[in-house]
Amino acid sequence: MSALSFCAESHAGCLFRRECIVTVTSVVGLQWGDEAKGKIVDILTDSHQVVVRYQGGNNAGHTVKFDGETYKLSLLPTGILRPGVKAVIGNGLVVNPEALLKEIQSLTDRGVPISGENLMVSDRAHVILPYHIVEDAVYEKRRGEQAIGTTGRGIGTCYRDKALRSHAIRIGDLYHPNSFRTRLADIVVAKNLMLKALDPSVELLDADAIFTSYTRYAELIKPYVVDTTAWLHRALQADANILFEGAQGSLLDVDHGTFPYVTSSNSSSAGIHSGSGVPEREIDRMIGIVKAYTTRVGGGPFPTELNNEIGQHIRDVGHEYGTVTGRPRRCGWLDGVATAYGARICGVDEIAVMLLDVLAQLDEVCICEAYEIRGERTTDFPSHVEDLEVAKPIYRRIPGWKQDITGARKLSDLPFGARAYVDSISELMGLPVKFISIGPDRAQTILL
Ligand code: IMO
Ligand code: MG
Fold first, then answer.
1. Ligand 1 within 6 A of 149 CB?
2. If both were cysteines, with which of 58, 117, 205, 292 could 356 make a disulfide (CB 3.0 to 4.6 Å apart)?
C-alpha cells in the first residue's frame, strides 16, 4: 500500500475556520433515522479526506444532491462521490456483496470512479447471506401485529449470527475457500432445519449455489478488501481529517433506542469505536443531526405522531417516503425529549436543524418539551417501550411562519417564527445550532 499523506498546505493559514483545522468529525442522527445526514456529510466532505461508515448495512438510505444530480446511497459512504476522498466501510457493518456490487455499478455507470484507491471494505465486516434475508422475512411474518417493520435486508439476522459466532461469515473468510465451503455447508443444514420448522412454505437453500455465487462476488470485491482498522490508524498518524458517517439514528440504536423497535447495531455514536477501531477520544467534533419534525419508518412508539392532515401535509411537503423501501414515513412534531436524549447518548457538541422549510405555511408549530407518563411530568426518555407508548407529549407552541424560506441564506433572512423555533430547539437541547437546512441543495444551508 502506498504511503499515506494528507492535508498540510491546504490547511495552512486558516486556523479560524474550524473545518480547516485537522479534525476527526462525526455526524450522527439524533432521531429515528432519515434526518438528512447525507447532506451535512456531503458539505463536510470538502474538508475531510476520509469518510467512514461504522455500522448498519444496506438498510440505510442517504440522498445527496451534488452538481445538479441526485444520488441515492445505501451501503457506500457518501464520500465516494468526491474525487480524492477515501470511503471506508468499517468492520462494524454487515455487507451484502451483491448489493455492494450493484451500488458500485450504478455509480460507475454515472461516471463516479470507484476503485481500490477510493473505496475500502473491512475484511472484518460480516457478510449477509441469502438465508439472512429469508430469516428476516420469516421472523417478521411470525411477529404479525408486533412486526418491527424491518427493511427486509437481512441486517438483524446477520448481526445475530455475528453474536452467535458459529453461523458467522466475515468478508475475510470468503478468501479461504476450503474452510468457507465446509462451514457454509454446515450452516445451511442448520438454517434449513430452522426455516422449515418456522415456516414450511419457505424454499430451502442450496449451499453449493451460495458458495458459487459468493466466491464470484469475493473475486469482484477483492480490490476493495483491506484491514481498514490498520489503514485508519495510519491515516490518523498522517493527520488525515476523518469523518464518521452514522446511518439510522440514535433512537434506533440496539442498546439505547426504543428496543425492540430498533435496528440491530449501535447507530448512535456508541458504534464508532467498535465499528471502526478508532478510539472515541480521537473524535474532536460531534455533530448531531435533527430533523425539524419527526419521522419514523416501521413499528414502535412515537409519542408526537400526527395521524391527521398536518402529518399528511408534512409527508407530502417533505417527500417523506423511504429511500430504501419506498414506505410512507410516519410523521409528527419534533420530540425535544427524545432528541435531547439522543444528543446525550452521543455526546453531541453542536446540532444541525434540517428540513426547516417543510414546516412553512402552518398556523403553529409544536415541540414536545416534556412527557406526561401516568400523570407524572418528566423530561427523561423512558427505557421501556410500554412507558413510551403511554407517554403524552406536552407541547411548546410557536406561531407558524406563512412564508417560503427556501431562499434564505443567513439567519436574519428567516422570519421571526422560524428563528423562534430554532432558538427553542437549541434551548431545549442545551446545544448550539450550527447549520440550518432550508432545502435540499448545498446552497440552501445557513451556517452559524
Ligand atoms: P437511514 O440511514 C430510518 C428502521 C426500519 C425498522 C428498524 C429495523 O436512512 O437513516 P432493519 O432493517 O434495520 O432491521 O430495520 O429500523 N430503519 C431505518 N429507519 N432510516 C434508516 O436509515 C433505517 N434503517 C433501518 O424501518 O423500523
Ligand atoms: Mg434515509
1. yes
2. 292
**CA of 298 relative to ligand 1 center, distance in Å:** 8
Nearest residue by C-alpha to atom 5 in ligand 1: 150
The H or E element containing residue 117 is none
From the number of C-beta atoms within 10 Å of its C-beta (0-12, 13-18, 19+), residue 245 rates as: buried
pTM over the 0.70 mark: yes
- CB within 8 Å of 165: residues ≥ 6 apart: none
Nearest to 225 by CA among 349, 93, 348: 93
**Closest atom of ligand 1 to CA, residue 151:** 12
Mean pLDDT computed over every residue of the chain: 94
Q: Residue 8 pLDDT more than 50?
A: no
pLDDT tens for 50-75 read 999 999 999 998 888 877 888 999 99
Q: Is 253 helix (H, G, I), strand (E, B) or coil?
A: coil
| Residues 121, 224: Cα–Cα separation, whole Å | 5
Contacts of residue 164, Cβ cutoff 8 Å, sequence gap at least 6: none
d(CA 311, CA 317): 10
pLDDT in the model for residue 22:
67
Given a cut of 70, whether residue 9 has pLDDT beyond it is: no
Virtual torsion, Cα 193, 195, 196, 198, nearest 10 deg: 120
Nearest CA to ligand 1 atom 3: 33
Burial of 411 (0-12, 13-18, 19+ CB in 10 A): middle
Number of C-beta neighbours around residue 94 at 10 A: 26
Q: How many helices (H) and strands (E) does the chain have?
A: 12, 20
Report the alpha-carbon distance of residue 68 to residue 64 in Å, rounded: 10
In the structure, ligand 2 is a single-atom ion and the residues with CB under 5 Å from it are 34, 61, 323
Task: Encode pLDDT of 237-274 as tens digits.
Answer: 999 999 999 999 999 999 999 999 999 999 999 999 99
Q: d(Cα 206, Cα 131) in Å, to the nearest integer?
A: 10
- In this predicted structure, the answer to whether residue 13 has a pLDDT above a threshold of 80 is no
- What confidence score (pLDDT) does residue 142 get? 94
Are 331 and 315 in contact by the 8 Å Cβ rule? The answer is yes
354 lines ligand 1 (CB under 6 A): no
- C-alpha distance from residue 361 to each of 110, 368, 395, 424 (Å): 37, 20, 19, 19
Backbone angles phi, psi at 65, to 5 degrees: -100, 125
* Sign of the alpha-carbon torsion through 83, 84, 90, 95: positive
